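Need residues for this backbone.
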């Protein structure tokens, strides 16, 4: 009887799970039927124990050979009480207890429209839900890059939980029907695995921003996450958006995430259409600002042109929503570029105050800290970003750069290799790995090999350092004289004095180096991204004991990292 009942119940549950959501049947109906199945199981077993089906009909079970009855009124009462207790457990406790949930991952929502062309919309809804949940500081929310990894490569919940190190996952689906949007979400605990909660949320398309907040607040309530007053306000204060503008925003953000030469112009086009259609849509303005920034890498835009278009878009976003983390993070990048270092840092910190789980802001803040020479702080930001987004290659690349910068080359290679495993086409990691391997040769005193490999790779400074270490000073001077004869050296001294300072530092010409570095400092808009290398480039080690060098670092807002022997300063 138990096997028969269990088999039939399993089939019924599979039918409920596979069809009710698609048919739009409310989630409470599913829960009621599953609860009734749970209540019915002990009742069916009790009846099967107490009665037999015979040719004469249903009769009470006969007693055992001992003559004692197989059942009694007391036994039947016990079975009944057990059935009632089981039913109560199935209704109110059968899904498991919430326990302490402090970390969560939103798995890619399922597209119920049966239209692959709507995947961009569903992916956008997934990311929006991640964004809303990440506003809750008491909760660690895994970033989009890691969770979207499972969109086309589903895995058991337990395996996902181990890989992402989370206490619970959110699964669900999206259905867009006319002007109505429905999100069905369920919360699954992972330690141990158990179903905790499920609910269905419906809104008109114009209230789609409120829909994301509805789901986030419901999840926060279920896991008993403590919200600050500011978080309460941000999760309950939403505005309407024109459906077509939101659709254009999602299309634009989809292409922005691809970050290719082909996708970025499309991203800009869609996002510009979105803000033209709804000029009060703050998120679209922020996304447009970030897309302008990316156009310098994938759209061929001049850096100044890209940054000068980026700033007004981000300002507009913050005018509409002063608490938009993405816009503050974007301004941090802008002011970093403009060498307004204090404002840049304040912008990054404000972004992280508003959304401590914002992986993008943490990563960019980490890059900023590298260029400030605050390497330990930078490493902390990258590690935090990696914990938030374990399958995102960028934080791992950042950690690799820190180890490369601090001359821990073996550890740097481990992280660059991990980056390439996650993103085989990563454009920086292969070059970083090759550079680390050449520096290892220098550390090992294999200068001839280092010089040969650097020459093949076009790594001029390492090649000259290796030749100088070999005592081949005439070769180094010959390179200098060749650059001088073509006029290239003079041009570098005028336009890129920091580059020239590195060259003369290899030859030990102190006064010349200081003159060039002072010139580089005076034109920070051109040189800032390079002169931060003062804190870690090996060719400057011979200057680190000089008072003039210490004064220069202080003026530039940089910290000492190495001493004149190349040893790390702690």
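Answer:
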């Amino acid at each position: 009887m138990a096997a028969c009942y269990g088999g039939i119940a399993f089939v019924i549950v599979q039918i409920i799970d596979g069809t009710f959501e698609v048919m739009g049947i409310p989630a409470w109906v599913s829960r009621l039927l599953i609860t009734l199945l749970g209540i019915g199981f002990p009742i069916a077993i009790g009846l099967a124990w107490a009665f037999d089906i015979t040719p004469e009909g249903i009769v009470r079970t006969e007693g055992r050979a001992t003559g004692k009855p197989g059942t009694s009124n007391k036994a039947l009462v016990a079975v009944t009480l057990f059935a009632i207790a089981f039913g109560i457990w199935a209704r109110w406790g059968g899904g498991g207890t919430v326990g302490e949930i402090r970390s969560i991952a939103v798995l890619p929502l399922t597209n119920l429209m049966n239209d692959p062309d709507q995947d961009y919309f569903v992916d956008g809804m997934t990311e929006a839900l991640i964004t809303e949940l990440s506003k809750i500081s008491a909760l660690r929310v895994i970033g989009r890059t890691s969770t979207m990894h499972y969109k086309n490569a589903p895995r058991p919940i337990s395996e996902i939980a181990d890989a992402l190190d989370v206490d619970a996952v959110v699964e669900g689906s999206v259905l867009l029907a006319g002007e109505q949007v429905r999100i069905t979400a369920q919360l699954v605990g992972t330690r141990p695995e158990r179903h905790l909660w499920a609910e269905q949320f419906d809104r008109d398309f114009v209230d789609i921003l409120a829909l994301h907040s509805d789901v986030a607040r419901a999840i926060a309530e279920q896991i008993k996450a403590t919200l600050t007053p500011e978080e309460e306000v941000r999760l309950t204060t939403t505005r309407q958006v024109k459906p077509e503008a939101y659709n254009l925003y999602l299309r634009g953000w989809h292409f922005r995430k691809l970050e290719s030469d082909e996708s970025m112009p499309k991203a800009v086009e869609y996002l510009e259409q979105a803000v033209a259609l709804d000029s009060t849509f703050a998120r679209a303005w922020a996304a447009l600002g970030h897309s302008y920034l990316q156009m310098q890498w994938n759209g061929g835009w001049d850096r100044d042109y890209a940054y000068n278009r980026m700033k007004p878009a981000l300002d507009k976003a913050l005018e509409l929503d002063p608490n938009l983390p993405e816009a503050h993070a974007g301004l941090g990048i802008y002011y970093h570029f403009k060498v307004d270092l204090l404002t840049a840092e304040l912008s990054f910190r404000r972004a992280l105050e508003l959304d401590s789980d914002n992986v993008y802001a943490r990563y960019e803040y980490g890059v900023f800290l590298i260029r400030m020479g605050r390497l330990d702080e930078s490493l902390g930001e990258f590690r935090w970003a990696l914990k938030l987004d374990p399958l995102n290659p960028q934080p791992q690349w950042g950690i690799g750069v820190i180890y490369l910068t601090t001359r821990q080359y073996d550890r740097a290679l481990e992280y660059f290799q991990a980056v390439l495993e996650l993103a085989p086409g990563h454009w920086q990691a292969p070059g970083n790995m090759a550079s680390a391997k050449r520096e290892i040769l220098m550390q090992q005193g294999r200068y001839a090999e280092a010089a040969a490999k650097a020459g093949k790779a076009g790594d001029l400074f390492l090649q000259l350092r290796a030749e100088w270490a070999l005592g081949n000073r005439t070769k180094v001077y010959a390179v200098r004289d060749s650059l001088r004869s073509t006029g290239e050296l003079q041009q570098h001294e005028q336009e890129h004095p920091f580059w020239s300072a590195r060259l003369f530092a290899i030859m030990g010409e102190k006064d010349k180096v200081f003159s060039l570095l002072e010139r580089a400092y005076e034109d920070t808009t051109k040189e800032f991204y390079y002169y931060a290398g003062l804190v870690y480039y090996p060719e400057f080690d011979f200057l680190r004991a000089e008072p003039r060098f210490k004064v220069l670092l202080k003026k530039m807002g940089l910290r000492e990292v190495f001493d004149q022997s190349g040893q790390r300063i702690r």
